[in-house]
Amino acid sequence: MIIIPDCSVRSRPHSRTVLVTVAATALAAGCLLAALCLGQPSVGPAAALAAVTDPEHPLRVAVVEVRLPRALLGLVAGAGLGVAGLLLQDALRNPIAGPELLGVSSGATVVVAAIVVLGLGVPLALQPWLALGGALLAGALVLLAIGRTRDPAHVVLVGAAMSAACGGLVVAVVGLGTQGNVVVLFRYLLGSLAARGWPHLETVAPIVGAGLAGAWLLRRRIEALTLGDEVAAGLGVPVVRTRVAAVGLAALLAAAVAAACGPIAFVALLAPHLARRATGTTSTRRVLPLVAVAGGLLLVAADLAARRLLYPVEMPVGIATTLVGVPALLLLRRRRQPRPAVTG
Amino acid sequence: MTPSARAVAVVAGGLLAGLALVLAHLLTGRSDLPAGEVVRALVGRSEHPAYEVIVLDYRLPRVLVGLGAGALLAVSGVLVQAVVRNPLAEPATTGVGAGAALAVTGTLVLWPGHPLVYPAALLGALATGAVLYVVGRRSFAVAGVLLGAVLAAVTSLLLVVDSAPIGVVLRWLVGSLNARTPVDWAQLWPWLVVVLPVAWLLASRLNVWALGEPAAIGLGLRAGPFLAVVLLVAVAAAAAAIAAAGAVAFVGLVAPHVGRLLVGADHRLLVPVSAVLGAVLLSLADLAAFSVSVQLPGLATDVSGVPVGAVTALLGAPVLISLVRRESRR
């Protein structure tokens, strides 16, 4: 095991991280409970908990078969996305890296859209792995393109071009289908947690769990990467292997989520920034648990808002996360960096 | 061969190719017209009124709009890449396509079937460009992509509330030249006449700007007004093209790239060469999209009438990869 000294740039007492993590966990639990209570019909927390424990409860189906898997999927998917964002941002030392801007999500979407629209009849359990193929391919191309540069503009441009290519492919795939498929396709271009049940959760949860475990094992090495390649190599960390592993894990997490929920943007970008801001540390291993919790919290809360705000119309959660995520990201980034003189 | 001689050769060759494309477009279509009839219909001497409608109202506008939109997208790409100083930028980077789509969607949701679509797209794209100039001074690339994401999300939200215009809007997002009419061409050509010369007039200043901001300012370029003008021209070109043909991807990325390979980075040559290349590229892709008709296993009907944007995306991906390779080697 490599021992790395505490290398947080702005080190604060560890207790703050613990405190914030506990508070975020409590908030996430509260959101989970709210997700069980609200809906048609809305019930109190006691009734919702009774429905979970009592198999004969009249609300059993609504709460346990519809609301519970959806909320849990939101937690799991959000945690996976948040950690994917953290892995990419720290391993690539790029504050704006995230699966949605690296083309990883759109690569997965192409595969999912092809499976859905062409009716290929691939079993649900296999879909995340096929989506992973698309995600890894798109992500590898983008990473190849980015090379050694850390200029956020360059990263964003390559990712945008890859997303455009994938978007064109998705539309080409849909063009192959019948006219009625257009609406179906549209649904797959938006991330959503609607109509997801236990099978989706059972598919995604093990992959996300494995991804989180991998990130936990790699946390010290990735933290070393944030200090720069030379320093990391000096500390005995295999730089290239660690980076490849981190990106692969991030692609796995993003692909699993995209296979079940479609492309949900900006949770992965936002969760690490929020976690770093809340704890005041940039240490990968310290913020890792909080990032997972924050991602889940963000997604469940966004889904709750997406369900209720325009009721009876339900907004796909991907829209809500984009509308909230972009301004939040701009705000978070604006305060951190001084304004450079050069445009580009 | 010097770059300028090569540029003349490319432009001449491109014009010839454009002429060949016009002929090819006029001769291909759903109905099989003999070449003689096509020529007679062109000069208005056909004995069959239906042939005149097919040639003059369907086929001719389609190829002309394709050529014009391709040229505008390519020039817009040159300008955007110059502003951002990154050869991977393209008109879509500015978010104007998303802005146009949002305006079109809003119009269709509020007034279904209303013929306001063209002005809506144009105004939406131009307004997005204005917003970008205000908010994006720090990094046009990042701001443009994020702006595009937000606009796309609002578009999706509108479509979730009212899903009737999905088909139309998706075709906008991808770009399609199907069913263009003489009206589309009439709305497009004035932009060509205005934007292309202005872009060419900006070329020598773009060369100065390419030296870097401090050097450009030292040489007497006023950065603020200059950027505003270039961005305005770039957005106007993209807006006109997108309003006519939809947000076709990669033409604005690939045409300047190929142009740079052929004549180098001098914008005085790059602007006209890219315009010609973009026109040929889009029209050629459209010919391919129009002619493709394949039977795939598992599908009931033949695949045909694919939007041209899907073809450019398919062709654009490998080009993107090669571009990226070159970039990473540097």
UniProtKB/TrEMBL annotation, chain B:
One of its GO terms (biological process) is siderophore-iron import into cell. The lineage of its organism: Bacteria, Bacillati, Actinomycetota, Actinomycetes, Propionibacteriales. Its main location: membrane. Coiled coil: none annotated. CDD domains: TM_ABC_iron-siderophores_like. Keywords: Cell membrane, Membrane, Transmembrane, Transmembrane helix, Transport. Gene3D superfamilies: ABC transporter involved in vitamin B12 uptake, BtuC. This is Transport system permease protein. Belongs to the binding-protein-dependent transport system permease family. FecCD subfamily. InterPro entries: ABC_BtuC-like, ABC_transptr_permease_BtuC. It is a multi-pass membrane protein. It is found in: Cell membrane. GO terms for cellular component: plasma membrane. GO terms for molecular function: transmembrane transporter activity.
